[in-house]
Each structure stands twice: as C-alpha cells, then as structure tokens.
Amino acid sequence: MTETEHARRRQFLDALAGALIEEDDIWQIETSSDGSALVARADDQDGLVVALIEAGSLDDAVTVEDVVRVESLASGVGVTAFEGRPAAFLCSRREPAEGAVQAAYLRNMRILHVRSTGPDTWGRDVAVLSHQEFTQPLDAAVLDEREWQEIHDGSDRAVFHDGGQNPIATFAGLRAELAWHEETEVSPWGSAWGTGKFEMPAGTVMTVPGERPLPVTGVTLRFHKETRPVYAASEEGAFADVATGWLWG
Fold it and tell me: Distances in Å between the alpha carbon of 162 and those of 20, 37, 105, 117, 197?
C-alpha cells in the first residue's frame, strides 16, 4: 500500500469513527495500533471490545483471504463475541469476490457494502426472499407438515455441516450472497426475479437450533433485489449507519 493509499484509508477511518459516535455515543471508538482498523467498545459492557471495523478493501472487492486476515486482527485485539452481533466488519465500495460473503458469515463477520447511488446519496443492495426449498437425499426420512414448517421458520439460523461435521455454509450467508446474483427471470407483471441454486456435498446436514439435523443435497432460493437507501450526510455516515444496525445485534 502506498503512502497516499494509507493516508486515504486513515482519513476514511477517522471520519467513520466520528460518524459512529454521532450515530450513538454509547460507542468508544479507537484506532488499532497499526492504524488499519477501528476498535469499538461499548460503555454499557464495561469497555469490552465488541467489534473491529476494517477498511483495507475499501476500494477493492473483499476476498476470502481478506476475511481470514481480518479474523486474525479481531482475535488479536480481543474482540468479545455476543450472540446476534458480528465480531468484525469489512468496509468496501465494491461487490465482494466469490466466496467472501459465506466466509464472513461462517466467522461471525459481515461485509459492509455501501455504494454511491447519485450525488451525495448512498444505498446498499439486499436480496428479498419469496421462496425457499431444500432438496433431500432419496433415502432421507420423510418429515410431516409441522416439522417442515418449523424447519422453514428457523432456517435463518441454520448452519450446514459436511460429512465430517465441519461448518461449510449458513443459510443467512446464502441469502446475503443473492444481493450480487443476477435476476434472470421476469414475472408476468414485468418485475425481475432470480433463482439461486446451491448444491451441497454428499453427507451434508442442515442444523436448525431445537430441531433434528436435516440431510440436504441442495438449497433453492427465489428472490428479487433491492437497493435500499442509506440516509446520511456523508459516505462515512452511510457506512456508520449500516454498521450501527449490526452493532446493536
């Protein structure tokens, strides 16, 4: 990284820190020792480090390698994980690279993608689900209607494990990825729609808290995309607005 790039990133982080405090003064925001990230503490939690906010990929697509790198940074500053609150954030103006979103979700991290939608206006891309379907092996046990309903109701908390019990994906991560999938279908009313199909390796099971593991071979999600406005006076304020929503869990 050149000195100019480093200076620009530091300028962005300084402005982001101010915007975060302006959003809610509960946060104590510090700059990490190497100047590459912000460290967030909460006044109501005895000053514990609750999140790391990094901007090393601000002008680049976040990659799986970036996610792994920031995970190490978060561990190094002693982030204390809380249920419902990501441990680290990666800020970026560009769409994430393949695999990065899922890698982040598996590590309890989030990619903060905010983009310009016009002069002094910003937005974030989201996918809105209309249908979800889980494909099972032919020899899987048949679930009754109540069991299927409970699986669908709890699917947003589902984690997929391979045959070796290693977590390989989360349902929330699959859904988040759709924000950057193509919408290749058109409804009778003229609106665009897309279908995301995710194949799972043999032996994969989906685990929903409180339910028995469900063997699955694939997930199909029907969706449409929206760009939701982020109301802020500056780009840093837009990033702060999105980050604050996650920080509150």
Answer: 39, 34, 16, 40, 18
Q: What is the b/e burial string over 99-112, where b = at least 16 CB atoms within 10 angstroms of the residue's CB?
A: ebbbbbbbbbbbbb
Q: What are 182-196's pLDDT values in tens digits? A: 888 887 777 788 999
Task: Match 């962005």 to its residue by tokens.
Answer: 12
207 forms beta bridges with 159
**CB-based contact 236:156 (threshold 8 Å):** no
Q: What is the pTM of this model?
A: 0.90
Q: Tell me the C-alpha distance between 233 and 186, whole Å.
A: 36
226: helix, coil or strand? strand
CA distance 3 to 96: 25
CA distance 15 to 31: 12
180-234 pLDDT tens trace: 998 888 877 777 889 999 999 999 999 998 888 999 999 999 999 999 999 999 9
